[in-house]
Amino acid sequence: MDGSSLLFLLPLLLASFSPATSLRTDTQLPSTQAEKLIRDLNLFPKLSINIVDRNISSVGRPKIVEKPFKFPNFVDSDGVSVEELGHHAGYYQIQHSHDAQMFYFFFESRNNEHDPVVIWLTGGPGCSSEIALFYENGPFKIGENLTLVWNEYGWDKASNLLYVDQPTGTGFSYSSDKRDICHDEQCVSDDLYDFLQAFFAEHPELVKNDFYITGESYAGHYIPAVAARVHQGNKAKEGIHINLKGFAIGNGLTDPAIQYKAYADYALEMGIIKESQYKRINLIVPVCEAAIKLCGTDGTISCMAAYLVCNGIFSSIISIAGNINYYDIRKECIGSLCYDFSDMETLLNKKSVREALGVGNIEFVSCSTSVYQALLMDWMRNLEAGIPELLEDGIKLLVYAGEYDLICNWLGNWRWVHAMEWKGKEQFNASSAVPFEVSGSEAGILKSYGPLSFLKVHDAGHMVPMDQPGAALEMLKRWTEGSLASDPGSLVSSI
C-alpha cells in the first residue's frame, strides 16, 4: 500500500468506526490544529509567517549583525553596563539561503566564560524560542507590569546560552523569499549549521568551549538533525570546527511509530481513558504504524497520510478527556486557554524593547501557522535513525521527560530510547534506574550507560524547566560536567 492509497482509504477507515467506538471521525485540518496550538497558549501573532517585501526600507529592515543590549524594563540591572551584562541580540544572514535572516538572543554565562555554549530550540513546529527564554530557562522572568527580574534557575548560570528563532519565518526571523521556508530537517539543520558558523565566527573566544544542543517538543526532530549536521561538518572539516559534546531532547517527538503507539498505553495507565476505550482506540494503531513505515525517513505523500491517521489516536484520547491540559494532565484548560504566554507578545511588541533589540519594523511571530503546515511532510519521519552513529562516536544524548505530559509523554520516549539499535543497547537496557536527587529529594528517575541517559522528571509536565526549574538547572549542570550518572548520593546539590 503506498501513501496515495492510504490517503484514499483514510476516510473509509475512520468512517468504519461507529460513534460508539469513541474514535474521532472529524479529523481536523492541519491549519485548524496549528491555530488551536497557538490559542491554547493565549498567543495572537499578527502574521502567519515573517515573509517581508524585498524592497522594505532600510529603516524597517534590520541591518545589525549583533549588538549588546539591555531590556529597558529589566529592574535588576541598575548600575550594570550593557557590556558587563553580556546580553546580545542580532541577525545573521543564512549563507546558503536565498535571503533568510535568523534572529537570536545570546546571553553570556553568569558563572564563567569557559562554561559550555548551549543552544535551545523550541518546537511547535513554528514556535519562537522566546517562549523558553521568558517562561522556562532564560535569564529572566516576567514580573508585574511587564518588568523583568532575574531567574535564579536560568540556564545562563551554567552556560553561555543561545535562543534562536527558527525555522525561518518564526519569531523575529524573516526572509523576503518564500523559498527559504523549510519543509524538512535537511533544510532546518543546514540553516542552523550556517547560523552556528556565523555565530562562532563572531565569537572566536567561544570556539573551544564545549557545545550542546538542547530543546523540547517538536525539537525532538530538530535536535538530532542539527547534531548530525554539525558532526558531519566537523568530520568533513567544513568551516569552523564546533566542539559538539552532546544533545538533549526534552519531552520530544523523535520516533513517531513508537511514540504514537504509546499514547493509549499512557492514557490508560494515568486513568485518562478506560479499558474499553483503550481497546477501541488501539484499532487504529496498526494503520498508523503502516503509514509511518511508508513515510520512513524521506517519504512525501505517505507522510501526510501518516499525519492524518495517527493524529486520530491523540484526538480520540482528547475527546474522551475533555478539557484536560495535554501538556500537563494534572491541570485543566479553561476554555481554549491551557497556558497564558501573552505577556511575552506584549513585551516584545513594546516600542522601547524593539528599539533595544534593533529589530526595526519586523513583526514578532510567536508561533507560525505557515511553518507548522510547511513541515507536515516532516512530522512522521523517524529522526532516531541518525542517533546511533552519534552515540558511537562518543557524542552524549540525554532524553528527559516530565511524567505528567501526555502529548510527548515519558512512556513513548522511554520506549524509543530502549528500542534504539546501537552498540550499547544491551548494556543500557540492562542498567538499573537510580534516583536523581536534588536538594536531598528525589527529583526523578535516571538510567544511563555510556553516552546515553534517560531521565523521567517527577512533578513536571511538557515544559520541565518551567515546572521544575531547580531540577532542570541541576540536570544541565551535571550532564554537561559529565557527572549526571554518578552516585546520586554524592551529588546532592544545595541549589
Automatic annotation (TrEMBL):
Annotated GO CC locations: extracellular region; vacuole
Gene3D superfamilies listed in its UniProt record: alpha/beta hydrolase
UniProt-listed Pfam families: Peptidase_S10
Keyword line: Carboxypeptidase, Disulfide bond, Glycoprotein, Hydrolase, Protease, Secreted, Signal
Protein name: Carboxypeptidase
Compartments in which it is found: Secreted
Function description: Probable carboxypeptidase.
GO BP annotations listed: proteolysis
EC number: 3.4.16.-
Hydrolase as UniProt keyword: yes
Gene Ontology MF terms: serine-type carboxypeptidase activity
SUPFAM superfamilies listed in its UniProt record: alpha/beta-Hydrolases
Record keyword Signal present: yes
Family, per entry: Belongs to the peptidase S10 family.
InterPro entries: AB_hydrolase_fold, Peptidase_S10, Ser_caboxypep_his_AS, Ser_caboxypep_ser_AS
PANTHER family assigned to the protein according to its UniProt record, in alphabetical order: SERINE CARBOXYPEPTIDASE-LIKE 49 (PTHR11802:SF446), SERINE PROTEASE FAMILY S10 SERINE CARBOXYPEPTIDASE (PTHR11802)
Signal peptide: 1-22
